[in-house]
UniProtKB/TrEMBL annotation:
This is Surfeit locus protein 4. It holds the Pfam family SURF4. The gene is surf4. GO terms for biological process: Golgi organization; protein transport. It is found in: Endoplasmic reticulum membrane. It comes from the Eukaryota. Keywords: Endoplasmic reticulum, Membrane, Protein transport, Transmembrane, Transmembrane helix, Transport. InterPro entries: Surf1/Surf4, Surf4. The keyword Transport applies. The chain crosses the membrane at residues 59-81, 88-106, 179-199. It is a multi-pass membrane protein.
């Protein structure tokens, strides 16, 4: 009886807000692209000068780079939120991630690289959600009877999205053990949360023998 009393407000909340939650979920997944596109507008000169100085590509190409980032990110966000050409918008944002990874030398910065991988995970969830014919309540939440490709896209998206937690960690490097250790109790909690969500995502998607293989590897 007590559990029923607690579940009733949650069910009532979902009933009232279910038509808004999918839009809110998509907005959360693309919020970084939206913020970055707006920042390109307000920091136009700084971004252009940085690219021009870093790559010595000239004023015109640097301007084209900033313009491509601005239009690509804001345009992709508008298409995803309006549910028009979602797959093309996701592919375009994947291209923006790849372009920024090279242009800003993100490959050599572990935290920014994990951030970009997490952004790619969010796009994978949106891409998987757009492939379904029926309407789901949340972007990236599986429904009954879905195909295996979509399930694995959702698995990859969830795992990559959890990497965003790893950008909040501060690691110390131990030369003798050649391993990284979290240097605070908060960081250790984030590590536990990462592995918890990782194994939950894998267990929901893959079959039991394959899940056992994942556990063995870790």
């Amino acid at each position: 009886w007590g559990l029923t009393v607690l579940m009733w407000p949650a069910e009532e909340f979902l009933r009232v807000t279910k038509q808004y939650l999918p839009h809110l979920a998509r907005l959360c997944l693309i919020s970084t692209f939206l913020e970055d596109g707006i920042r390109m507008w307000f920091q136009w000169n700084e971004q252009r000068d940085y690219i021009e100085a870093t790559w010595s590509c000239g004023y015109f190409l640097a301007t084209c780079f900033v313009l491509l980032n601005l239009i690509g990110q804001l345009g992709g966000c508008v298409l995803i939120l309006s549910r028009n050409f979602v797959q093309y918008a996701c592919f375009g944002l994947f291209g923006i991630i790849a372009l920024q990874t090279v242009a800003y030398s993100i490959l050599w910065d572990l935290k920014f690289l994990m951030r970009n991988l997490a952004l790619g995970g969010g796009l994978l969830l949106l891409l998987a959600e757009s492939r379904s014919e029926g309407k789901s309540m949340f972007a990236g939440v599986p429904s009954m009877g879905e195909s295996s490709p979509k399930q694995y896209m959702q698995l990859g998206g969830r795992v990559l999205l959890v990497l965003m937690f790893m950008t909040l960690l501060h690691f110390d490097f131990n030369f003798f053990s050649s391993a990284y250790f979290p240097n605070s109790s908060t960081d250790f909690l984030f590590v536990l949360l990462f592995f918890f969500f990782f194994f939950k995502s894998v267990k929901k998607t893959v079959k039991k023998p394959l899940f056992g293989f994942f556990v063995f590897c870790f």
